[in-house]
Amino acid sequence: MCTTQAKVSEMMATCQAECEESTFQLRAWLRFYIELIGAANIDYAATVWHNFIIPKHRFIFLKIINEQLLNRDHLSRILTSDLCVVCENALESHNHLFVDSIYTRKFVDSVENWAGCLSWPKCFRELQERKCPAKPDLDELVLNAIYSATLYKLWRNRNNCLFNVICHSASFLSKEIKCMVKARVVGFHCINAKGKDSYIWRVVNSW
Ligand SMILES: [Zn+2]
Fold first, then answer.
1. pLDDT tens, 90-102?
2. pLDDT per residue as tens digits for the range 152-176
3. What is a single Pfam family found in this protein's UniProt entry (predicted)?
4. In terms of domains, do 27 and 65 share one?
5. Which pLDDT score is estimated for 196?
6. 173 lies in which domain range?
7. Distance between CA 76 and CA 69 in Å, rounded?
8. What is the whole-number distance in angstroms between the Cα of residue 1 and the centre of ligand 1?
């Protein structure tokens, strides 16, 4: 019996060591990737990498800030058309997709109807330079998660238009964001939240 227990303890210790090693390797790979794409030493890290933001949203958020998405202004040499696939009214660029497009403005309006003001950038430069405060309040963190989800959905919808010939309505995507952010934020619910934080939790829970 003692031998069995010793073997189990030994296996658990080995598993823990392997787990710690793979976590370390994952972090090392992440650092390598960030350096590779030229996003090292950025002061918007806290804005992009917060737990409230779904990992795939963080990834697209980072690519947008670094203007690295493969949209049509980058692919214009090999594509026959570089028009925006969502509205077909302007050249597709990061600035058009995430700031200028009529669809984007309508989408942001729809999100702001339930989320409050997102202070959406007026130009792409402003989007790249946007930062969360050093010590953000809970409401600022929630708004940042909504902001990131909105960027992600804009890119996802653009890809749906391009590859599946489907363009979802702004209100449909807005509702999806609401459910997504609620699930994420409530998943980190703090039962000890007090005062203003407690109020914010109740608002998010009511979505
Ligand atoms: Zn467009």
1. 988 999 999 999 9
2. 999 999 999 988 988 999 999 999 9
3. zf-RVT
4. no
5. 77
6. 40-206
7. 13
8. 69
Give yes or no: residues 135 and 200 share one domain.
yes
Q: What separation in Å is there between the alpha carbon of 127 and the centre of ligand 1? A: 17
C-alpha of residue 190 to centroid of ligand 1, in Å: 40
> What is the Å distance from ligand 1's center to 89 Cα?
6
pLDDT digits (tens, 9 = 90+) for 120-146: 999 999 998 888 877 888 888 899 999
Same domain, yes or no: 31 and 44 = no
* Same-domain check for residues 82 and 125: yes
Distance CA(93)–CA(101), nearest Å, equals 10
Provide the domain count of the chain: 2
- pTM across the whole model: 0.71
Backbone angles phi, psi at 199, to 5 degrees: -65, -45
Going from the Cα of 92 to the center of ligand 1, the distance in angstroms, rounded, reads: 7
* Burial of residue 13, with CB atoms counted within 10 A of its CB: 0-12 exposed, 13-18 middle, 19 or more buried: exposed
